[in-house]
Structures are given as C-alpha cells and as structure tokens.
Amino acid sequence: MPLKSRHLLGLQGVPEEDIQTILDTATTFREVLERPIKKVPTLQGKTIVNLFYESSTRTRISFELAQKRLSADTINFAKSGSSTSKGETFKDTVRNIEAMKVDMIVVRHESAGVPQFLTRISNANVINAGDGRHEHPTQALLDMYSIREKLGRLAGLKVCVVGDIAHSRVALSNIYGLKAMGAEVSLCAPPTMIPKDIYRLGVKVIHNIDEAIAQNDVLNVLRIQLERKAGTSIPSLREYHNYFGITKERLEKQNKDILILHPGPINRGVEISSEVADGPYQIILNQVTNGVAIRMAVLYLLGTMN
After folding, report:
1. Separation CA 155–CA 258 (nearest Å)
2. Which one of 120, 127, 181, 231 is CB 3.0 to 4.6 Å from 154, fit for a cystine?
C-alpha cells in the first residue's frame, strides 16, 4: 500500500495503516540484511543527499547504509567544511544541492521545523532524521518494530518512556506512533523534565521509577541531553541515577519480565547501569540493526512513489 504522504516529517497525524505498511515492509528488508549479498537494486538511479547539520553516528550511518543496500547514489553533507561557514544561507545551500538533480533529502537539524521548510523550497522527497526538540520519526519506527519483533504486537502494550522528555524528539515521535498503533503510553521523569502541556497528548505521567517498572511491559530509556543544557533540570547526574536510573536491582525487585530499549548514545551509570545495558532485558543492538531495515523501508516506499 502506498503511503499517504510523499515525505516523512514526523509521526503526528500519520495513520495506523501507514505505520503498519512501513513496519511490514521493514520485515522484508530485515530478511535482506541476513543474506550473504545484502543489496537489492530497488533504488538504482536515485540520488539521495544526507543533509546533517547536527552530529550523529547511528542515524547517519544507518541511513547511508540503507541507501547503499538499496543501490541508491548517496551524497553526504556536513555543516563543517561547507559553504555555510562562508555565510551561505540554508535555503541557498538546499537550492544549490537540488540543482544537481537529487531525488531525496534526509535532513537533521538543530532547529525544529526545518524538514517542513524543506518541502516548500525543494521538489525532493524529504525525510526528517531529527529536528530540534520536535520529532525523530525513524527512531520511533525502529523502536516500534523492535518491540513488535520481540513481543509480537503493539496494540494493548504498556510502554513507558523514561528520562529527559523535555529535550527529546524521540519521546514525541514515540508517543504519536505508539498511540496510533494502540499502545498505552506513559512517561517517567523528574517534574523538571516533563513539559507542562504533555498531558494533552493523552499520556500518563509517573514520577517514581519503581512504579513505572511495575506498571509497564516496555521501558524506552532516554539519555540526559547535556548538550541541550538538560543538566540544569536536575541537582546532579548521581542523584538522577539514584532516583530514576534503571538498575539490575530495581528490575529484580519487581520480579517481572520487562523489555528495555534505548535509542543511544548511552550514558552508562546515569540513566542506565552497565549491567542492564549489557543484560538480558535489553534489545539495544537489535534496535540498531532494525534501524537499517526501517530506513530501507521508508526510503523504498517514498522513493518509488514518484
């Protein structure tokens, strides 16, 4: 089934059937990644630009690998070393890139709304790889895929997003996506890390991590975003870990099976202990592998619409 939009700017308002299509398509590409030859000619002849104005490891490499697995021509743009340092505007940079006849743009930017702006100045398909504190749709999609792969469903599950909600674009995309798929979503963090209007999205807020563990099937643990001054929202990283850190002792105390996700990068000993990050409850590296399959699915579905 074709998607309703030729862009992926976020998961807000994306219908359940579109998310289902992406997840199901990713299953096909997940099988491709297990083959001896991990490449298909699906997007041969297509040119994709990775326009990254923010630092990234997993997302950038994952998108680039997905593009190469689909046989697309890939161009990587980094803010450092570009004409931006000479005073060129973002709009002029994009128009110059598009003049080279590109088909798709994957963009990450520190400012919310940049992917939407791109759709107004470019004819290419646009995929949001993270914009400010707004959304990170492919991360939420790979999170949902990983949960479904492990537990067999999304509808009816209780999923708690734990950590720095106020500065997280992953949290918002997870809320929109999981609720669209019928999951019950809650948030757990100190009050200083919970946006005041988050209740309007129909989520439950918990301020006790032991309650969050007891009440949920899945924990999606977010890091403290120190680069966005999140450290000013808490007395110290040590105190945050004491009250909200996911530890082996806390999990064993509840004596229940629970699934642990983390979008990375991990601050070991802060939001999650090393024992949990490397232990049997987590599927962190599965998420990384599934991220390539999800991004292959999104690129395929959008790249074959034109």
Report:
1. 16
2. 181
pLDDT mean by block of 10 residues, the chain; 306 residues: 93 97 97 94 96 90 97 87 74 90 95 96 96 96 98 98 94 98 97 92 96 98 76 82 96 93 93 96 96 98 87
* CA distance readout (Å), 158 to 183, 213, 218: 6, 10, 6
- Reported pTM: 0.95
- Are residues 76 and 50 in contact, defined by beta-carbon separation less than 8 angstroms? yes
Peptide linkage before 115 cis (omega within 30 of 0) = no
Beta bridge partners of 260: 219, 282
Distance in angstroms (rounded) separating the CA atoms of residues 1 and 17: 9
DSSP per position, 191-241:
GGGS-TTGGGGS-EEE--HHHHHHH-SEEEEPPP-GGGTGGGGSS-HHHHH
Nearest Cα residue to 299 out of 110, 182, 127, 139: 127
